[in-house]
Amino acid sequence: MLDGTFRLIPMQESDLDEVLDLEQRSFSEPWTRKMFLGELQGNAFATNLVLRAGDAGFGEGVGAGALLGYIMFWVVFEELHLMNLAVRPEARRHGIGLALVRHALRRRKAYGRRCSRCGRRTRPPSRSTGSSGLPRRASAKAITFTHAKMQ
Ligand SMILES: CC(C)(COP(=O)(O)OP(=O)(O)OC[C@H]1O[C@@H](n2cnc3c(N)ncnc32)[C@H](O)[C@@H]1OP(=O)(O)O)[C@@H](O)C(=O)NCCC(=O)NCCS
Asked: Which atom of ligand 1 is least distant from the CA of 94?
């Protein structure tokens, strides 16, 4: 799903205008620019990816290079914490969300292999955390996702 006609690349600050637009279309309590920047800047545990359409675009009105979605996750102590996930409405129900989650799971697995080889753990980021160990605002989204059927 993510091969060939898609580009899955690290999220940059220059993506944020489009990302914030999709965030606002996707959530009743959208993350702010500041919250996205918190994930992008200096969080060693965070992986933040955007998925863009390839040269063929993605159907009517979604041209080449358009933002299709994003996924943001942490791998901490070999655990995967999904922080944020959205797919643009015009591209939903085509398997993109599932493919993004599968990609994150593969990254977690790869990290686990590296970790077991180096045999050491690093400290989790210092942030205000809820009982789940996730930042309070993000854990709500992670829980929301947990209830989706996509797992
Ligand atoms: C949730 C979201 C990321 C799913 O993305 P997607 O690309 O449409 O998901 P997929 O096409 O991979 O769906 C895979 C399966 O998940 C389930 N699913 C997806 N969206 C669903 C929904 N709204 N309600 C119930 N089940 C759903 C279905 O079983 C689906 O398979 P199917 O289409 O064969 O029935 C997308 O709807 C979205 O961006 N929603 C708004 C933001 C959000 O809720 N993010 C998740 C919390 S962080």
From this structure: 11
Q: Provide the token pair at 57.
A: 């675009």
CATH class entry, domain 6-146: alpha beta
Report the Cα 6 to chain-centroid distance in Å: 16
Q: Where are the domains of the chain?
A: 6-146
pTM of the model: 0.79
Query: Is residue 48 lining ligand 1, measured as CB closer than 6 Å?
Result: no
Q: Whose CA is nearest to atom 41 of ligand 1?
A: 26
**Atom of ligand 1 lying closest to residue 93 CA:** 11
Consecutive 10-residue runs of the chain (151 residues): their mean pLDDT?
Answer: 76 98 96 96 91 91 95 90 96 94 91 53 42 37 32 31
Nearest-CA residue for ligand 1 atom 35 is: 93
Cα 61 vs. chain centroid, distance in angstroms? 24
